[in-house]
Amino acid sequence: MSHRRAVALMVLATLLWSIAGVVARQLDNAASFEITFWRSLFAALALSVALTLMRGPGLWRGLAKARWPVWFSGLCWSVMATAFMLAISLTTVANVLISMAIAPLITALFARIFLQHRLPARTWAAIGVAGVGIAGMFWKDAGTGLSLTGSIVAMAVPLAAALNFTMLQHVGHGQGEPANGPRHDMLPAVLIGTILSAAFTLPLAYPLQASAHDLQLLALLGSVQLALPCLMVVRLSRQLAAPEIALLGLLEVLFGISWAWLGAGETPHASTLIGGALVLAALITNEALALLGRGAQRARNGHARE
Fold this sequence. Notes:
Blueprint: H1 3-17, H2 20-24, H3 33-55, H4 58-65, H5 68-90, H6 93-100, H7 103-114, H8 121-141, H9 145-154, H10 156-172, H11 188-205, H12 212-236, H13 242-249, H14 251-264, H15 270-305
């Protein structure tokens, strides 16, 4: 896969992810845990079909024999799928997406803790600035308990995403692999995550009240908004560098807030925009400096070889 094609696919994945909020706002009766249940169930069905076509009948035998990184990643996907839709039902789309945008910085912090990666001063500064932005959003929500609960639930998404992405990078670079065996197949982890999410939320979803119209929209969310882009990103994590994925992933914030504003009339609060601007500025500055630094290093190495 060429780099240009990988970037285009990552942008497409981000665009697909971003429709969740505006579609959820069009539902008639389904709410909270029922939304999460149906979305995860439809995603599990779509992934079952797609992965069976890709892997054959051996997919299910492979799941039973999967090693711990696959199940760990599946648990992370489950938390992400569950917390995201619960947060969407409790607070604004903008709050959820901006809370999620901090995931690259949490990933950097986890990489320092679990993978012993050194963090430059600029990344520590970015974590601090983004933290101020998130804290500002939480302070605004403190007066409205329901919205604050939604923002707190939303923070589970970047935490789980950071753990998941750290694992994907660990495995994607050949670390943690069996000494004498095949590499871990991480794609089924997404299927495991959706099955766990659906199983966890089913008892909490009763009584089921989704209309036929709701089920159509939830099937769209499960298959097109969740299953397809998740498979794409797991594959692209082997093709694109972490900073590129982080920067391109920020498009979900811009796309998602725009969809909610244009399609659901959900105008972000001023404090949300200010907090979001701090988070995005910290992320963009950090990743841009990282890319510039690597470019300068490659140039120095090129001159040294000449």
